[in-house]
What does this fold into?
Amino acid sequence: MKNECLKTRPASDPYEIWKNHSGWTWKVLKKYQADDNKPFGRWFCSVSSPFTRGGEELGDVYVKEIKSQAFKVS
It folds into this structure.
């Protein structure tokens, strides 16, 4: 399986956007693996939350952490 999301995108054009009802948003900018169901799979994301005061922070996030508490918007 080829990873179509290996190249890093800017936050203005993410591969996917995930949100939850607590005000968190994850913009997926890069996927390190093609299979999102791996136990320790991770994504490089731009994350905004009530704690970032309108800003965003960049970093790696475990896929399992996002999928367990959020829904895919696009």
